[in-house]
Amino acid sequence: MYNVPNVKLGIVAVSRDCFPAELSVERRKAVVSACSEKGLELFQANTVVENEKHVLSALKELKDADVNALVVYLGNFGPEGPETLLAKKFDGPVMFVAAAEESEGNLMGKRGDAYCGMLNASYNLALRKLNPYIPEYPVGDPQDVSEMVGDFENIARILVGLSKLKIFSFGPRPFDFVACNAPIKPLYDLGVEIMENSELDLFEAFNNHKDDPRIPAVVKDMEEELKNGNGYPGILPKLAQYELTLLDWAEQNKGASEYFVFANKCWPAFQTQFGFVPCYVNSRLAAKGIPVACETDIYGALSEYIITCATQLPATLLDINNSVPKDMFENNKDLFDGYTLTDLFMGFHCGNTPSCMMKNHAMKYQLIMHRLLEPDKEPDISRGTLEGTIRPGDITFFRLQGTADSQLRSYVAEGEIIDVDPKSFGGIGVFAIKEMGRFYRHVLIAKRYPHHGGVAFKHMGKVLFATMKLLGVDDVAFNQPAAMLYKDENPFK
């Protein structure tokens, strides 16, 4: 995807000098082979790290191969000092993982004790104040380790992306709608750059793109995407002008950053001044890997970008919006099998979900804005939404939020979209998340989360949860099945 980093994985085997280095080499090759079978490319450094000089040799190999994410592999017990020094000096995300013993017949001549070595590695990592990714159970055979490497690739993509990300925002939050407030300090703590701008800056840039010669080509691309759903073709030139405005702004202002997202104010003055709603453009850019969060939701844009890096799929930002009526529940009980009414809710936004993530879609107008701004008239300045039913399938709701006192907290909730007609407007779907009723009360409400949640169109809870911990986010609520084992009022601790 555009605007998402490429991860090049490398693996370095380590060996404590009282163990045979050949054991680590043999096991490393087996891991690389297992990864290859899964389509994971893994550069092998020839150097086996047994001492500090080996660290320098391995680092040179990795740099020459453009490796930007490192697997430190304990093929045997491993040298605690050199292996953690390797992690310290490597410029990028690092994972530590260890080899399991292969068979009972090997326990005399080929026992590696990496299970033990991981303990001492963790102690030395703490001495160096390092926080690499260590999987939940970091010891396994080559197939097990290849699964861990697959997770690490997604985690590394997030970490690399955030380290080179700039957020562009346009406009302040409205007085009546301050929920998605955005303290800046936590963004800097994450290594994310932010450039806040006035709506006037955006309006000027938009006007400067009038009659841009590229507009007809963008309009044609929009027409090809919308096909029979092109309900308001007359608005497409303005939308194309706006899309070019945002892309040019990013290229001209991203500076030292490589990746970018937007958090833009989209009402109430936007419609009267720009003459349209920007939802369809937001959906198109999200499809390219460039989230554009509605309503100046800076942490919403950040959450969408994290999802995009994790999944390499477009994300969307939705209101955790309305309850499912009892009659809809009763009329579709076979489709809601296994869920209670309070497990269900509708995720909605005006029209920002990419068309590729919708079951059906069409260009429409924003009903609420139409009622407010041009009642009893044909839609004009309220045109520009992409509406329809969001496609069914697995999802993960996710948000990383900076609180009013500049702390970071996050939630991760896996579930699915049910193939039920929402019978409403906007981009909308019926969502099902186990124990959503309790999650809603004891996480979303109790911890003061705003109404927007980022949506990943697959289950990515493990990866997102692990990434939050690597970023130093201590307060992460995860509706993992294990969390249901708690018997107190709030199982989501």
Low-confidence stretches: 482-493
Largest sheet: 6 strands, antiparallel, barrel
Separation of the first and last Cα atoms: 35 Å
Assign a percent range to the helix content. Answer: 25-40%
| Cross-sheet strand order for the largest sheet | 10-11-16-15-14-17
The number of helices is 16
Can you count the beta strands?
A: 18
Structural class: alpha/beta
- Tally of domains: 2
Radius of gyration of CA atoms, rounded to a whole number: 25 Å
Shape: elongated
Average predicted confidence as pLDDT = 94
Bin the strand percentage: 15-25%
Which key terms come to mind for this protein?
493 residues, alpha/beta, Rossmann fold, 2 domains, 6-stranded antiparallel β-barrel, 5-stranded parallel sheet, 18 strands, 37% helix, disordered C terminus
In short:
The protein has 493 residues and is of the alpha/beta class. The protein is built from 16 helices and 18 strands.
Question: Can you offer a commentary on this structure?
Answer:
The chain has 493 residues and is α/β, with parallel strands linked by helices. Helix content is 37%, strand content 21%. It has two domains: 9-162, 3-Layer(aba) Sandwich (Rossmann fold), CATH 3.40.50.10940; 164-478, no CATH class. The protein has helices spanning 21-37, 52-64, 80-89, 114-127, 142-163, 185-190, 199-207, 215-226, 236-253, 269-274, 279-287, 298-311, 326-331, 367-373, 436-445, 461-470; strands spanning 9-14, 42-44, 69-74, 94-99, 139-140, 165-170, 193-197, 259-264, 292-293, 316-322, 344-349, 362-365, 383-389, 393-402, 408-418, 427-432, 452-456, 475-478. The strands form three sheets. Strands 10-11-16-15-14-17 form a six-stranded antiparallel beta barrel. Helix 5 runs antiparallel to helix 12 (298-311). The longest helix has 22 residues, at 142-163. The protein is elongated, with a radius of gyration of 25 Å. It starts with 8 loop residues before the first strand and ends in a 15-residue tail after the last strand. Residues 348-474 form the L-fucose isomerase C-terminal domain. Keywords: Carbohydrate metabolism, Isomerase. InterPro entries: Fuc_isomerase_C, Fucose_isomerase_N/cen_sf.
